[in-house]
């Protein structure tokens, strides 16, 4: 809990400081006097005056945002000697640059963070697939348990469009982008040892936009990476121990049917209990190079609110095979820029589809989800936290560029109007737009918070 809170506060602190520093740095470069640089709102906890302009740098009690206050005649009278340094007196392009600098700083930060994660190297599951769910897109494509996806390409592309797949994370990303475009994806696969290369067509044209979410891989029929059907820790006095099973046993067959992977093994164990009655199973296992026959009767256990399923009280499945994804300084930074661009485009597309009802608003996340993911990524290691921080930084940059009043994008919208018409929007319209923008933002925040609570309670 403490780790999660500290990781969340660090995430907010870094992103807010970088965002506001973008505004501050460009304002100073444009000759605008900055009165205050604030991280947070409300009660001032710490304050210091720095620079020739004696700019106040403050830390406030509520760390959910920040602001840069500049000299501006619309907020307070300005002495004639400093009027040239007021924000409202600056040419249109300078004002636009100052406003756009905050979101752009977040996007630049994301490039660096993604690049740093690539430089350090991230251990990720190898793109070896578990068993596809029957009657799904993955099974119809011809995928099998143990298939190693080596490369992907758009179905409409040519040989030059093939992209190597470094890990399961890369594969998920390519599938998500293809599903967003509703296009088929070509997969170059082999067995786990790299033999028997095949080219398959994964048809994603029928995927609805609402299905492009955290459950997309399950919708397609790919629930997770391949895992060997090996037993882990055995609980005392459970069915597995009573049957004589041991940690490290590899299950080869159950009742004469081959067991290719851990998911197949789990399903067989769960299926031993049907309509309240339990069936004994004949297992063939491998232990220290020897083949053994073992009889086991899984015990019935309640599966949430559903019917009872079989349990053997043992950890089932070996950890997925991992690969280290690492790149050099130039390649890492380039890939960081590419990933930032791709995530930005995907975010805009998703927001647009939520707006027209083609995507579920359940995809909106709030501070509770961010805090949860921050804590999880910190526990996984520095590269994972940097990648998480980069994703949130992209989201913050893109969201602030939306043409909504009260956001940076809303101010840029005013400047576009001024550039086209030669005059700024009237005070009456500004007031109306501010009220409307506030209502939209409050609605988005409410939906995001509801989604957070629903996820925590298991309602989503």
Radius of gyration computed on alpha carbons = 28 Å
Instruction: Give the fraction of residues assigned to helices.
Output: 40-55%
Give the strand order, joined by hyphens, for the main sheet.
Answer: 5-4-6-7
Q: How many strands appear in the DSSP assignment?
A: 18
Low-confidence stretches: none
Rounded average pLDDT: 87
Strand content: 15-25%
The number of distinct structural domains comes to 3
Shape type: elongated
Instruction: Give, in order, the helices and strands.
Output: HEEHEHEEHEEHEHEEHEEEEEEEEHHHHH
Number of helices: 12
Secondary-structure content class = alpha+beta
Q: Please give the alpha-carbon distance between the first and last residues.
A: 22 Å
Question: Top keywords for this entry?
Answer:
alpha+beta, Pdz3 Domain, 4-stranded antiparallel sheet, elongated
